[in-house]
Amino acid sequence: MRRILVTMLVLMCALAPGLCQEEELAALEAAAAESSAAPVEILCPAKEHGAVGDGETYDTVAIQAVIDECALHPEGGVVTFEEDSRYLSAQIIVKNGVRLRIPKTTTLLAGLKREDYPKNYEDWYFIVLSKCNACGIEGEGRVDGQGSLWASGGTAEQKIVKNWDDASCIMQKECRPHLIGIKESTLATLDGVELYDAVHWAVHIVHSETVAVNNCNIWGDQLIPNSGGIVIDGSRRVYLGGNIISTADNAITVKTTSASHGVEYLLVDGGILQSRSSAIQIGHESRAAFSSLVFQNISIEQSHRGIAVSLRDQGSMEGLQFTNITIESLFYERIWLGGAEPIHVTAMPRAVNVEIGTITDVRFQRVTCTSEAGMVVAGSMDSTIEGLVLEDVAIELVQQTDFAGGFLDYRPGMRGIVDDVQTSAIFIEFANHVNLSNVEVVWGKPPRPEWGQALEITPRTVHATSVTNLFVHDESAHPHGKEDHVGSTRSSMMAWVRKIEGNLRSSHKAFLGLEANAAAGVSGRRAASSASVIVIVLLGVVFMVFVVSGVVGHFDMRSKRHARAPDEPHFDKIAQA
């Protein structure tokens, strides 16, 4: 465990030098050398405490007993589970030095009853790593939130979800448990596991330091609101590597809900993200500072909003970097946050008389977008965005669905949605020192009626702007351009959603997958540049050199896949998209 976390920190410093000082890197390299010898593992089998694993009998007492006993060892230990088993349980609390190891064919099932969880809403997690050191969950097995059993009725776009009527829960529409919580913990890891069908957030990392989430597959029902992927709140030195996340709510959320806990030193390297809201959401709840956040080598698929940087409260943001990223954004119903923007950077008060911080130094480099709407950079009279760079960025606007466009979505916040506006490929207002360099805009075929300018700058609100090499190409003006495929992506996307629902209904025998051809009607998707591929390969080699313990490198996302049944859908194709 210590070796894995130290290796993670060394990689964070090596891949993103701004995250560490030279003396910190030297100390981490020394610690890595000291921990090169693998310690002898202490195994704590759950069956020795009476765990049944039949999927019907509650194994809570047995599992908690083996965790408590394993934690008594000075170096902790590994709680093991039988293969081909399903363990139903109420809340599980992981203690210092303890790791849960879930075999590939084994599932931990979250209890559904109110009495399965603690008194207060803030403690509603199925598995919680609370105030623990060197703890975690590993293996290739599944942690199943049974979220589909919470939902019934609704529409083709969003289901109705049952919530508990509990006085401890302020937001009634979110009164249901998270899947995994990492609270006030250090040296915590999630490695290789599948987090499946959560009814609320799959992973909540709050007020913790030195946390790694590697090679995890997170799959949720696409029609359950607030069922997000990974939420990072007020934590430092968090590393997400090679995760595949497909959820209704944001795939990755970064927030600071407490004025005393900021987010500092976050590295997200590799992975595939998909969301009906934002694939990456930074801010929205921003009461403390965000600094030194790096996102790189990421593919965003079929999301309502690609990358969202949303400042709405007092906390400020500084030093955000997005590199080697492909984004595909398209319209969903307006009940889901977003408006098909690949990049959305906004700073405006949540409400009247709300004090707001600032956004400074945000960089997008080597980013390729295919979208139905344009990029939005919008500060406000209360907070002007300072220092934004778009370098080697390409955006192709292509009509992919039959939803109406022609609006600006400023949500979340009091400005809401502004209708009846033209869609510009790049829209900028209330910003200073904006630098556009080597930016390409392609208008696809057929043209949408709301399409407007390639670059729109609101007069007298934007200052010190530099534009170098802005290329504009209009394929919609050429009769022999791309074929008309209005609505084709919409129909294939809905077929994909129905597949997801079918997989969820078929319980543990199904494995929720994305097909590479789920959006067969989408044209213009660009392959990753050869330079990006070389970088990924080289980083993979570095990672394998460090991680000699057998932990699979996060750059090889195809190497760890669950085999539930011969006829189940498989993930491999999406990694080739």
TrEMBL record:
Pfam families: Glyco_hydro_28 (PF00295). Keywords: Glycosidase, Hydrolase, Membrane, Signal, Transmembrane, Transmembrane helix. The keyword NAD does not apply. SUPFAM superfamilies: Pectin lyase-like. InterPro entries: GH28_Enzymes, Glyco_hydro_28, Pectin_lyas_fold, Pectin_lyase_fold/virulence. Residues 1-20 form the signal peptide. It comes from the Eukaryota. The chain crosses the membrane at residues 533-555. Belongs to the glycosyl hydrolase 28 family. This is G4771 protein. It comes from Coccomyxa viridis.
